[in-house]
Amino acid sequence: MSASADLLKELRIDRNRPAQSSGPGRGTIVGIVVLVLIVLAVAGWFVFGRNAAPQVKTASVTAIGGGNGAGSSVLDATGYIVARRIATVSAKITGKVREVMIEEGQRVEAGQVMATLDPIDADAQRSLSAAQLAAAQSDTARVQAQLKEAEANANRLAALVKQQLVSKSQYDQAVASRDSLRAQLDTAQRNVKVSRDSLHISDLGVDNTIVRAPFSGVVTAKAAQPGEIVSPLSAGGGFTRTGIGTIVDMDSLEIEVDVGEAFIGRVQPKMPVEAVLNAYPDWKIPAEVIAIIPTADRGKATVKVRISIKSRDPRIVPEMGVRVSFLEAAKPANAVQSKPSAMAPNAALTQRDGKDVVFVIAQDKVAQTAVTLGRKLGDDREVTAGLSGGESVVLDPPESLKDGSRVRVENADADSSDK
């Protein structure tokens, strides 16, 4: 029992003994930890906070319509430049190309020689026809001489018969010989005409070895080379050409667009049009509707519209892509002009607090701009108020993007090179 009592005495706390310091207190340690965390947070902000601005894609807003007296756009569509007068020129006969006198981009006039074929066969046929004509003419001259003699003999015997100096049978024989020679002369003259026509056909054969331009235009393709065989009909295989080259009449260029069935009612003949080539987006070309083709494409649900180009320019070439805006009729000068509108991508539109807004790039910040929307134009949307055109707007703005937020614009050049 004494041992157990001694142990209990040792475990008893002596409250009168002074406290001994064994190291820093818990409060000091916690303070140090908090200070370290604050320093790390500040350092992290300096390292990463400056680049925390989100990276965004942008697009430009396009101005449409306007108050300059021209009508505003009622419909936009895309199409291509086409030529109404285009021809792949070929020879009328099958033959070997001897010389080609055209190059791509060269302008040719109507009747200009584009190529020649080997004329050996045609020349030989012409020589034969010329010889046949000469023989027929010679035979005609022979018959004419014989007929002249026969007519003189018949006339002489006629006088002698009246004087009963010769028998009537001799006279009848002379008349028969004269009539026979007259028939031979008629046949010989017909043979001359046939031979002359044959020579004319042979001349055409020689002329067919020369390929000429059917109309004035520009050569867009050179299809044959000297030594190749060309034929107006495909002979099968890969060794026979069917054309010498392709000519386009640049004065016949026009625009063809496919308009959706739901919007074709907005298009009328003689309607003014503003065209913009994909190659020259800042160049606005005046145009006019020629006709609406009275048939629809059931597969695409579109109707083809032909548009004439009022401005002729060497920059306009076939198969170029073009975007057209069908305009309302121009208003009188004293009429109140409508305000210009703009066209923004659908991806740039979003809503904040129930309002349609876009985020316009201003240096490295964005400005939230309320807009009033108009018609849908494919992947774009008409903006009747809030934008005037030329602004750079954020595409697919994130929900966290607010007015005045800093952003980093994605490098469009780098994206295009990666694709």
Automatic annotation (TrEMBL):
Chain intervals with Basic and acidic residues compositional bias: 399-419
NCBIfam families linked to this entry: RND_mfp
Domain CusB-like beta-barrel: 255-327
Residue ranges the record marks as coiled coil: 133-191
Residue numbers spanned by region Disordered: 387-419
Similarity field: Belongs to the membrane fusion protein (MFP) (TC 8.A.1) family.
The YknX-like C-terminal permuted SH3-like domain, residue ranges: 345-409
Domain Multidrug resistance protein MdtA-like barrel-sandwich hybrid: from-to ranges: 85-231
Protein name from the UniProt record: Efflux RND transporter periplasmic adaptor subunit
InterPro entries linked: Beta-barrel_RND_2, MdtA-like_BSH, RND_pump_MFP, YknX-like_C
Tagged with keyword NAD: no
Assigned keywords, A-Z: Coiled coil, Membrane, Transmembrane, Transmembrane helix
Transmembrane segments: 27-48
